[in-house]
Amino acid sequence: MVTYGLTVDTADSEYISHANDTMDLICRASLPGAYLCDFFPFLKYLPSWVPFHKEAAKGKAMIEELVTMPYEHVKRDLALGTARPSLTRDLLSMKKDDIPNFEHAAKWTAGSMYGGLL
């Protein structure tokens, strides 16, 4: 509720399982030695078809989706006039014309707070 103004029921059906999957992937990937390139850094320059590159791309997409889905939900609710009080609603309600990359900063600020609560 604090970050996006979404109830647990709404978040559970739409976002929580994705968040759990994303956090599981991050935990596995961040273990020291989880990938061979942790021991041999030159391996990170191998072609993108190498399995750990594919998993890294999948993880990046999952993280992007983790922060984008609920943020866009609040944007839709705000446009409809139904957005509940939240950090994201307050950020989106600010005068932001003079703030460069505001959308990016607001989305990732809310996403960081959401990720920290998981």
Automatic annotation (TrEMBL):
The keyword Oxidoreductase applies. InterPro entries: Cyt_P450_sf, Cytochrome_P450_fung. Gene3D superfamilies: Cytochrome P450 (1.10.630.10). Keywords: Heme, Iron, Metal-binding, Monooxygenase, Oxidoreductase. Its cofactor is heme. The keyword Oxidoreductase applies. Belongs to the cytochrome P450 family. This is Uncharacterized protein. It comes from Hohenbuehelia grisea.
